[in-house]
Design goal:
This protein is mostly helical. It is built from four helices and two strands. It has a two-stranded antiparallel sheet. The longest helix has 102 residues, at 61-162. It is rod-shaped, with a radius of gyration of 59 Å.
Length: 185
């Protein structure tokens, strides 16, 4: 039976009907141009005439109630899935934030460890420099002490060669002439 539709409009209407069947919850807006209105009015006027008696749909309220219930359940399931998805995304976001915090804390600890290590190295360098300075000072003092001892030994050696000790007072005396008489005080 011919409805008086152009091929283009008939195809568009068929696609719209197919979309409605595949997704009954979707809202479809039909353009209001004059051709579409005339096509739709032609279709709606002839709607009863093209159906035969055996094509008349059997309206069963139980089936309608069942479909409505199924749609509600799908909506509820969709809402649950959305809530679960949101909860999952929230958990992932929380995990990422926790990981970021942990990474930041690890970086902070590592920086603190590096700073402490640098401070220890600097303190060790100061202690080493202090020890070195003390060793140098001790070596210089030992060298001065040896010098003084050498000078004292040299003086004693000279005195032994050129002088002798008084038998009574043990003072160093040098005889360079005259009599052997000596008086100690």
């Amino acid at each position: 039976m011919h409805l008086g539709l152009t091929c283009k409009r008939a195809k568009s209407i068929a696609q719209t009907i197919a979309r409605c069947k595949s997704n009954p919850d979707e809202i479809i807006y039909i353009s209001s141009d004059s051709e579409a209105e005339s096509d739709y009015s032609d279709f709606s006027d002839q709607e009863e005439s093209y159906r035969s008696a055996d094509e008349e749909p059997n309206i069963n309220m139980e089936q309608i109630d069942k479909r409505i219930k199924e749609r509600k359940e799908r909506r509820i399931m969709n809402r649950k899935e959305v809530k679960e998805l949101e909860a999952s995304q929230l958990r992932k976001k929380s995990q990422l934030e926790d990981q970021a915090r942990a990474a930041k804390e690890a970086r902070r600890r590592r920086e603190k460890e590096l700073l402490e290590e640098e401070e220890r190295a600097a303190e060790e360098a100061r202690q080493l420099a202090k020890r070195k300075l003390l060793e140098e000072q001790a070596a210089a003092e030992a060298a001065r002490r040896r010098q003084r001892e050498m000078e004292a030994n040299a003086t004693e050696n000279i005195l032994k060669d050129l002088a002798k000790q008084c038998p009574k007072c043990r003072s160093w005396i040098q005889k360079n002439g005259g009599c052997d008489h000596m008086t100690s005080y």
